[in-house]
């Protein structure tokens, strides 16, 4: 059985002008320990999917969510808000785009770490959490963890904050890690370093990952399987190698050609909308 | 805390410069107001000789810079001259009236913070729902009428039609309290007279509420706006994504960053209360400095005007320094900026 099972997930937002549909029936599965990427352009519905899995969007009163989202055998959509909150920060966690603005500027890293660790272990003492945090920061190759724990986020570099975020996200040994364009706000070399670190850490912990990105190049190194999403529909999915070897869907090909290369041909032209992009879903076998 | 000390010295230095500016302004205004202070002081029946003598005593025959010099030296010696209105040294008048005003303004400021901030937090936490709308209506109501209008309304409602509170004054006449500090709430406690303390507090409540209402509205609106903005920050989504309790997010993660801009305005509001107190004190027959200030202005009592303005300016500066220090204490960015980042 898969850890995360999404079946016919639909999402709409109620607005004054009527309902705006964002997701038109998404199917997606993640096995235990599997690293999945959900790739698509801005506005394709990838971030809202992550927020539904986390149970955050369910709290938005204008959101209309239908379909099945099963996490570890439980249906997220039919849970109480309190039960969903219990899963967050313990069984699943998330890493956002910009690590520096994801950390609260008013509290030290150490304070925020304690809060995260107390999600799993509410009675954890300050001293014990300090010891645990030091070990965890050491695992993500942060030099002098004691100093970092005393620091505020604005005193650390973006790469350092990203390492802190990775350590926090995995601190409570979650079953599922959501990564919403992690490190997009960082410069490319730092992003690459922290992504490698993140991959090593999740492989070591056996964590399943839903990696959300607009960049197929970044995803290729990371994911076991890829789902390509366009305008609220999955248009193509399959094992990473198979998908890259033989991209079938017109939108997947367009996305691949959009990855910048150092050949000096400039930015490739991708049409904004093409009828081909709306062609039905193509699946490259089932990796499950 | 060396950064903290440096900040304090820096603010004290700036305040000193402001004080010099204020003293020059007061001095200039006092000379610009038409009429010869010596003639006003001596009354219409004085002869030219008497006036000339007093002018010499008051250094009015010297050049302006010399006059300013005398003024500054007098102020530094703690001599603000004699009030023509009360015929007593101005310092003595201020010592008598200032505590009453400070007592009123402190309580009003406390009410403003204790009621305004939680209302703002509540509204932001339930933004878009009925709690939010209710707070916004309350805030609009309190801001839209000046303090003296509220003073009259409150007095009519809760002292006249519904006699829950005394109509005027600082304390019931039956108590004879020794004035050690001039703060009646403190003096009654020093005397160990609890019923007198109760009476003093009882008299304080209505005027303090009247004075605080517009501040409550401002504080609530501002806190709400800042918090709603903070709620959109990625670190709040992060806190939600990690399953922290919504009430904890509101009280700690969202409130603390929002408090800083609110504090600046609350500091200004607090100082503005010193001015608003003029009319509230008049309505409630509160024997404070603000009422004294109005009386001496109406009588062109130059020494008393200058003394009152100077004291209010100093109070204003002290409040501002306290607010700056509180902001520095709350905001690690400011606390660490003097040390440099690591």
Number of domains of chain B: 2
Structural class of chain B: mainly alpha
Biggest sheet record of chain A: 7 strands, mixed
Count of distinct structural domains of chain A: 1
CATH arch. level architecture of chain A: 3-Layer(aba) Sandwich
Blueprint (SSEs and pairs):
The complex is a heterodimer of chains A (288) and B (342).
Chain A: E1 4-15, E2 18-30, E3 35-39, H1 46-54, E4 63-71, E5 74-75, H2 81-87, E6 92-95, H3 99-102, H4 109-120, H5 126-139, H6 145-150, H7 158-171, E7 176-180, H8 188-205, E8 208-213, H9 216-220, E9 225-230, E10 233-239, H10 240-245, H11 250-257, E11 282-283
Parallel strand pairs in A: 3-8, 3-9, 6-7, 7-8, 10-11
Antiparallel strand pairs in A: 1-2, 1-4, 4-5, 9-10
Helix pairs in contact in A: 4-5, 5-7, 7-8
Chain B: H1 2-32, H2 37-42, H3 48-57, H4 64-76, H5 90-125, H6 130-144, H7 147-161, H8 184-190, H9 194-231, H10 234-241, H11 246-283, H12 289-298, H13 302-330, H14 332-337
Tell me about this structure.
The complex is a heterodimer of chains A (288) and B (342). Chain A is 36% helix and 25% strand. Chain A has a single domain, classed as Rossmann fold, CATH 3.40.50. In chain A, helix 7 runs parallel beside helix 8. Chain A is α/β, with parallel strands linked by helices. Chain A is built from eleven helices and eleven strands. In chain A, the strands form two sheets. Chain A has a seven-stranded mixed sheet with strand order 6-7-8-3-9-10-11, with helices on both faces. Chain A has a four-stranded antiparallel sheet with strand order 2-1-4-5, covered by helices on one side. Chain B has 342 residues and is mainly α. Chain B has two domains: 75 residues, no CATH class; 242 residues, MetI-like (MetI-like fold, Orthogonal Bundle), CATH 1.10.3720. In chain B, helix 11 crosses helix 12. The radius of gyration of chain B is 24 Å and the shape is globular. The C terminus of chain B is likely disordered. The interface between A and B is medium-sized, with 28 and 22 residues.
